[in-house]
Amino acid sequence: EAGVAQSPRYKIIEKRQSVAFWCNPISGHATLYWYQQILGQGPKLLIQFQNNGVVDDSQLPKDRFSAERLKGVDSTLKIQPAKLEDSAVYLCASTLLVGSGILAKNIQYFGAGTRLSVL
Amino acid sequence: SQQGEEDPQALSIQEGENATMNCSYKTSINNLQWYRQNSGRGLVHLILIRSNEREKHSGRLRVTLDTSKKSSSLLITASRAADTASYFCATASPTDSWGKLQFGAGTQVVVTP
Question: d(Cα B112, Cα A20) in Å, to the nearest integer?
């Protein structure tokens, strides 16, 4: 079974430039997440999709970040314009939700991430 | 804000020793999960423990959960150099139906040969 694919692996840009990240989840996983992980911290959820609909984007800085998941499969995350504080690793994860409540099995499978440096 | 807080922030041990790290959280949960992250890689799921369970084992891993204290611990027995990684706890809330997890800041473990 192929894992979560992300590209590029590394990106260096100058502030005020734009950048896009791509994610292809595990086949059949309806739920897709984008996280931002700053060095030394845990992943912070930016946006969550269920198929091609947004479930949660409460922590997405919408003035500069956007994301889409057309056709409910792969997804892109864009930053425009980038700021210095956007330097981080951007992780994509997917899951196949099984069950509900206490019996829910919501194990997330992560890609290797894209390391973004904004200069 | 992050739901889970791991303790210690960093841990350095020798091969063969046991490594124990703790996670405290603030609100009720459906389950708590532990993930490992090797340097420069994504997170890998290790183990899931439900709120009605108290202990789970998987190979050299032992996880406990105390919902009255809102805390969990991860024990790695007979550690190996390959266990060097950051370990994160993540909680799933009963108020969320979409599988969202809140991650802690992690414990960085270094195992020296």
Answer: 38
In chain A, DSSP assigns E strands to 5-7, 10-13, 19-24, 31-37, 44-50, 53-56, 65-68, 75-79, 88-95, 109-110, 114-118
Q: Using CB atoms, pick whichever of A45, A91, A110 lies closest to residue B100.
A: A45
Question: Which one of A58, A108, A109, A110 would you mutate to disrupt binding with B, by most B Cβ within 10 Å of its Cβ?
Answer: A108
Q: How many other C-beta atoms lie within 10 A of the C-beta of residue B44? A: 15
The answer to whether A82 and A72 are in contact (CB under 8 A) is: no
Which of B68, B65, B57 is CA-nearest to residue B90? B65
At A103 the pLDDT is 83
Residue of B nearest to A6 (CA): B42
Strand partners, B35: B45, B88
pLDDT tens column, B23-63: 999 999 999 999 999 999 999 999 999 999 999 999 999 99
- For residue A54, give Cα distances in angstroms to A20, A49, A77, B100: 18, 5, 13, 13
Taking the Cβ of residue A53 and every Cβ of chain B, the question of whether any pair is shorter than 8 Å is answered with: no
Query: Tens digits of per-residue pLDDT, A80-110?
Result: 999 999 999 999 999 988 888 888 889 999 9
